[in-house]
User: Fold these one by one.
Assistant:
Number 1:
Amino acid sequence: MWPIVEKAAKDNGLVTAFAVVGLMMLLSGFLSKKLTFGRVQGSAIAILMGLALAYVGGRITGGTKGLADIAFFSGIGVMGGNMLRDFAIVATACEVQPTEARRAGWIGAISLLIGTVLPFMVGVLVARAFGYTDPVSLTTIGAGAVTYIVGPVTGTAIGASSEVLALSIATGVIKAILVMVFTPAAAGFLRLRTPRSAMVFGGLAGTVSGVTAGLAATDRRLVPYGALVATFHTGLGCLMGPSVLFLAVKAIFA
Amino acid sequence: MIIYGTAILALCHLLGIVLGDLLGRALGMTTNVGGVGMAMLLLIAIRLQLQKRGWLHPKTEEGKLFWGALYIPVVVAMAMQQNVVSALKGGPMALLAAVLTVISCNLCVAAINRMEPADAPTAEPSPEK
């Protein structure tokens, strides 16, 4: 019996993923109501469970794609992959109030700039404190603190070692996970209530995945506003990392 | 027809990605610059135009809203395939850099959002509050 079930799941990966994620949402909604009395949103619990399962999957298979590396769950890779993720993000644009977005456009742009330079500086200083002195390593780790894509793109462009690249990616991934996990808890402190505040957050918190998952678990209606700004994050980082920021680090530390 | 909405969404998505790649190329990079953001802006613009002409059929809207509603489940699936193992292996330096980055950025978010005029409208009047 089981081999037949397994084959059906493998041959219909995306359909299996819809069923698995649906069941997880049901379970997390139930836990949210019964265990936390609605204080912790169901989607926040589902994302946390997802990350925990990703850890389990990574441990079992030794792969890099969490649960999606297990054949039975391979459809998760399609459902949570870049294509469907971006498609769903674009679709949320239907909920954007154009006047709101236009009014907060400039503050979003400023946030985006701070959100690139500030993490970079923090990353460089931490790397310096841990004994890295060459501008290439410092820049690569700093860029990783912007997003986990900016890190390796910058590092590859300026010729960083693979060990530093790995550290840089790890920094970015941890940052994204921290944003996903702690945004709902910090939402009050961050004043995440309005479209404008979500756009500021989208610019500063970085990574589309972190921002949108964090906002999704906080208030679903804020997602499109945060995503609208956050989507420029990686592009701006990849633009500034190997150029302006690298030159600045070279001027200061070399 | 529902497929019209989904097709509009798909065309905006593709066009945005192409524009993002072209912008990246123009700036001398191989990465996509803001493709998804441009796709969102395109979709907003097209929707406004259709609305103005009265061509925005509710069925067409459904073809887009369905995918927007799938957003959270897609994010959950995305969480399930993060490389959590290697993130935890990055060691104290990666962890410290990430924690300090998130804290400093969050302080900025809190500061900027506290400057927001108090009369600014909230996302939408929500019935439960």
Number 2:
Amino acid sequence: MSKSKWFLFLAVAVIAVALVVSGCGGAKEQGAQQEQNGSSGNVVKIGLMTPLQGDVKTFGESVQKGFELALEEANYKAGDFTIEKVIVDDRNDATEATNVATKLIDQDKVAAIVGSVTSKCTIPASAIAQAKGVVMVSPTATAAKVTMDPDRKDYIFRACFIDPFQGTVGARFALNDLKAKTAAIMYDQGNDYTIGLAKAFKQEFEKGGGKVIAEEAYAQQDVDFSAVLTNIAKQQPDILYLPDYYQKVSLIGKQARDKGITAAFLGGDGWDSTELDFATMDGGYFTAHYSSDDPRPEVANWVTKFKEKYGSEPDSFATLAYDATKLVLKAIEDAKSNDPAKIKEALQAIKDYPVVSGNITFDDQGNPVKAAAILQVQKDGSYKFVTTVKP
Amino acid sequence: MEFFLNQVINGIQLGLVYALIALGYTMVYGIVKLINFAHGDVFMVGAFLGYFGFTYWGLPWPVAILVSMVICAILGVVIERIAYRPLRYAPRIVALISAIGVSFFLEYFCSLKFVFGANYRVVQRPLPEISWHIGGITITNIQLLILVAVVGMLILLQWIVHRTKVGAAMRTVSFDHDAARLMGVNVDRTISFTFALGSAMAAMGGVLYAIAYPQIQPFMGIMPGLKAFTAAVLGGIGLIPGAVLGALIMGQVETMTAAFISSQLRDAIAFAILIIVLLFRPSGILGRTEPEKV
């Protein structure tokens, strides 16, 4: 590059930086208060951090709906405090997540953040929230590192269960409700989600006196499972545990039935899709965050309200966001304070608080202890609520 | 013993599907010395067309297979005309890169929403599933169908190559393009014919594959394509019986590894065997130092 080109480049860079800085300044509220986070008087600010653009935009939109409905329902009040909301978009980008988390905390002075949606964004944002002492409740980030890295981040909580928990619950359901004695497990050797579920299932199933007769791994691009399934068919287990996503389990399920395997299929929330092969997986069970058919009053109330406002059934993202928001409101009310340190203590102290996805108590890692729903696949493309299994 | 035989049958089924793809690879290689990387994607297009045929267009499944074969034959000719023919006298690496380009183009073009879409589709089998149990071993009508298709194709190919005029032209072109032209062979037309034939077979393989493993998506051709290519090399690339032999060996090795050693090692062992065989027989199992091409 010649000297003049360097100069041009520098000039453009300087202008760009100047624009960004002034842009940020413009967004700053007039007369921003100098109090610490938690805002002044009887006002508490709650931030929502969610991807409203990018690859998981629909997740983010659902989360926003759940968040806003929870606030409206509470009439923007928690105890004696008035709630103000601030919504930011992290675009499911880890760098952007740290930017908007910093903005929420330093500029908007929020006391608590609901978010973010994916583990990828929540992990870096939670490090900031923890360092600055602001409460953060993620509705849907399942990675262990969100709340522990490697020590407990005591300001960080989540409203969803973590992956291995589904395996544990699945095993208990197989043992107690299906009276299964033997099981075969097939999982994707390259996917932490399915490995986590498979491991936890095996551990719990064997602890309860069951026998795992086969544990087979496959690669993500495999389509021919006939060799492994012929092995499994010879031993006819009671359960075939398939903790993978909907496309893969549909394919394995079809070939398993081809090979004469009569075992009940069991899996995790990766099955939850309209693109599951319902005819093949008919009668199979999977663990899920919640079911809209669960007879608890909180569920019916939520489904009706959501339909009234948005005209569609709530998905699990909206549901968990609603729950996360309710938990924050409850903690503010209990704490009788807008100080994040007190709110965090109140959250940790919550006991059996009824929200849509269960009655929530937090364990010492900030994960909710609540029941998982068991759903059964129906031929016609729907799910039937079977039961809930407590941890 | 019955258990072992059932695994052998699983391996044959997998091997026969690889064979249908491997035949196309080996023919094209025999004629133009080009590894047609887009072949696995023609296989994918064939699977989709067959699926549309018997699911949405209301065709009986044998007709759907034929329609898919015809359309893919045209696709194969078009690919050759656009992406390979202009490069025929360029260095071989250029045509190879062009083939990789066509492969990616087909995959991503077909992933577009208004083409096939990127999501997985479940294939409802168009024929009833029947299985016969003979002394403890189980054979399904789908396995028989694949067997008949491969044997039929193999006989047809051998007949075309050794008994017809166009086959004689193919064999001539495989030896030397320029000499063939001097002998009055229309080289371009012969090469087009080879692509049409290979692509039609890939299409048939695709539809049968979609019936046997009932799920399709635009990237489904990559792994079977690679395995079939490996099989063709293993058997001796350029040789029609070699492709079938290599494919059957690949199918057995994969199945036996998964059944008796570990399902995690199936690809590792299959490809390790490939390397070992090639170390001792660089031109493949049936390959000779001066093999008869095609």
